[in-house]
Specification:
two-stranded antiparallel ribbon; 2 strands
């Protein structure tokens, strides 16, 4: 009897030992996989930083000849003459900023309006088809937008819109300068409209997604106390999702700042600053795309690279401002 109990206890001890060994082995395996995953994700993060640093370093290194030759005058000079090697970034920077402002002024209210319609007013049967149709706009290549803008939008604006703007604001101070003729069709305004069409799907899609995250109980409570749809959107939906809306707007602005081919087709590619939005102009990305393959000489190439560096700095500054704004909003919500 005692010997049987001893044998059973020994068997139990053996089983426990095997179980503990298997558990220890499993824990070692989990730890190894966690360590490998940690190293892999850390390497991915450092890879992004290294690539970003490499891009910055290459832009700075390529810009050094132009920086030495022109200094800060590069930012304040409008002249762009490859023959005499006189280069200034003022006209491309001006065109980039103005076309982006026009694009966002058109796309943001329309995009948010579309998102409100899809989430609050649109019949359920139409929400998905309309949403998919809007999102498909984001998948159209930019060169297609450029061709459409050159052969369809620009002639339409030249014949039906720009003459009306010139006549309507002819006697209005300031606006008479912004909408002075002749109606070229192509120009800064046309480029801004094209950018607005390209940015619209981003703003509307992100706004719609964040609007759908609003808890239904909040909207039902507002409707329950007698609020209209407009009051619910203004007082509940937009305040609850303002961080997401700002993020979508900033993504759209990033697209507008860096767009190249569509703008190149319709902006006119003139290296000058004109007070009229109907006049031809240029942007940083359009200038680089048009002239980089034809750049002869180190100074010409360096000037184009410095334009790229300026665009990088503008984009970085805007993204930093947006992050700071979002951080402030989070802090206020925490209070």
């Amino acid at each position: 009897m005692a010997s049987n109990l001893a044998i059973d206890n020994e068997a139990i001890d053996n089983e426990l030992g095997l179980a503990e060994a298997r558990l220890a082995k499993a824990l070692i395996g989990f730890k190894l996989r966690d360590n490998a995953f940690h190293v892999l994700t850390l390497a991915a993060a450092w890879t992004v930083l290294i690539l970003l640093g490499g891009v910055i370093a290459s832009l700075v290194a390529g810009s050094i000849p132009a920086i030495k030759a022109f200094g800060l005058n590069f930012l304040t000079t409008e002249a762009w003459n490859p023959v005499t090697e006189q280069f200034g970034a003022m006209a491309p920077v001006y065109g980039t900023i103005v076309t982006s402002i026009i694009a966002m002024s058109i796309a943001v209210p329309i995009g948010i309006g579309i998102a409100i319609f899809l989430t609050e007013l649109c019949p359920y049967a139409l929400r998905r088809p309309v949403g998919i149709a809007i999102e498909l706009l984001a998948g159209i290549p930019s060169i297609i937008y450029g061709i459409w803008g050159l052969f369809v939008l620009a002639p339409f604006l030249q014949e039906h819109v720009q003459p009306g703007l010139i006549a309507a604001f002819a006697n209005v101070p300031v606006l008479s300068e912004l909408f002075a003729g002749p109606p070229y069709g192509i120009g800064v305004l046309t480029a801004g409209v094209i950018l607005a069409v390209m940015v619209l799907p981003i703003v509307s899609a992100i706004s719609r997604d964040v609007f759908e995250t609003v808890p239904a109980v909040l909207k039902e409570a507002a409707y329950g106390v007698g609020c209209t749809t407009w009051e619910v959107v203004r007082s509940v939906v937009i305040p609850y999702t303002r961080v997401g809306i700002i993020g979508g707007v900033m993504l759209g602005l990033g697209r507008a700042l860096g767009e190249t081919m569509a703008v190149t087709f319709v902006i006119g590619n003139a290296h000058r600053i004109a007070p009229s939005l109907l006049a031809p102009g240029t942007t940083i990305s359009a200038t680089i795309a048009n002239e980089f393959t034809e750049a002869v000489g180190d100074l010409y190439t360096s000037a184009l690279i410095e334009l790229g560096l300026i665009l990088f700095v503008i984009t970085f500054f805007i993204l930093a401002m947006s992050r700071y704004l979002l951080m402030r909003l989070h802090q206020r919500e925490g209070q």
